[in-house]
Amino acid sequence: MLETARYRIPPETSVDLFVHDPGAKTGFEGAKEDGKAALPELRRRLAELQRRLWAESKRSLLVVLQAMDTGGKDGTIRHVFSGVNPQGVHVRGFGVPSEWERAHDYLWRVHKHTPEDGAITIFNRSHYEDVLVVRVKGLAPEETWSKRYRHIREFERMLADEGTGIVKLYLHISKDEQRERLQARLDDPDKNWKFNNGDLTDRALWDDYQRAYEVALSETSTAYAPWYVIPANRKWYRNLVVSSILIETLEEMDLQYPQPDRPLQNLVIT
Ligand code: AMP
Ligand code: MG
User: Fold this and answer.
1) pLDDT digits (tens, 9 = 90+) for 79-118
2) At residue 127, what are phi and psi to the nearest 5 degrees?
3) Ligand 1 center to residue 201 CA distance, Å?
4) Closest C-alpha to 131, from 201, 207, 215, 65
5) Is residue 31 within a helix (H) or strand (E), and if so which, with residue range?
6) Cα 11 to Cα 132, 217, 245, distances in angstroms
7) Under the phi-then-psi rule, with left for phi > 0, alpha for psi from -120 to 50, and beta for the rest, what region is 170?
8) What residues contact residue 41 under an 8 Å CB cut-off, 6+ apart?
9) Could you tell me where the DSSP H helices lie in the chain?
10) Which of 49, 126, 155, 258 has the fewest Cβ atoms nearer than 10 Å?
11) Residue 232 alpha carbon to ligand 1 centre in Å
């Protein structure tokens, strides 16, 4: 399995995304085919760990996925989780908040969807949008969003204290890679539906978003809810890194199958 610690942001680190190479494939310098061939085994291990999590049913896992447009959030979910039992995995996407959602604090809509005991929940975008798009586009005053880093640390600490493992993944692509992926959405009729004019507005704000990500990662990577910066220009490598991180996170939880309340070995079904 890949060495993943290199992609983890230690607590209280000042993040400079420029030094994180979106095209990295460390540990898999050889053929792309070797990298692709390594995924099925990781899927198998992830499925086994999810079975334990589900059987134990005392703790849960929250996976936060963030990225610039075309960063590969949907593809990651599709490829990494294709082996797990769908019962016990939830995916929740967070788009522009509705009027009703905006009538509440920004954590209200996400808290409702945190995982129950035994489950894995994947957030496709998350409460982090409230310090990313909101900050970059000035959707709330600085006085409001600047306090949110602390709220988020405390919110996640509470979830962790109550038995939710948390892992946060920033899929890091380069601006050039985004250009190619957006262009592909225009050129391929089957991908047209994915294209959104808002993507161009956000692309024009690329540097501001990178800066907002740097601050968010610096302010909220903690021992109990670490951020990882995933090299995501190569989809196959991204899948390997994400799978490896999830496996490690679940392994560290030391999940146990429940013990039967009496010995079952000598029982025979008649
Ligand atoms: P997509 O993930 O492509 O379906 O797009 C969802 C859109 O919702 C993105 O443009 C996000 O920036 C936007 N969005 C998500 N959360 C918020 C939020 N809290 N406030 C404003 N926009 C948001
Ligand atoms: Mg979009």
Assistant:
1) 999 999 999 999 999 999 999 999 999 999 999 999 999 9
2) -60, -15
3) 13
4) 215
5) none
6) 19, 9, 17
7) beta
8) none
9) 32-56, 73-80, 99-102, 108-111, 133-136, 142-145, 148-161, 175-187, 197-204, 206-220, 235-252
10) 258
11) 20
The closest residue, in CA terms, to atom 7 on ligand 1 is 95
Atom of ligand 1 nearest to the CA of 127: 19
pTM of the model: 0.97
Instruction: Find tokens 């061939």 and name the residue.
Output: 37
For the beta carbon of residue 264, count every other beta carbon within 10 angstroms: 7
Q: Which two tokens stand for residue 155?
A: 């919110």
Q: What are phi and psi of 218, to 5 degrees?
A: -65, -40
Q: What is the pLDDT of residues 220-242, one digit of tens each?
A: 999 999 999 999 999 999 999 99
What is the distance of C-alpha 231 from the center of its chain? 13
Go through the chain and tell me how many residues it has. 270
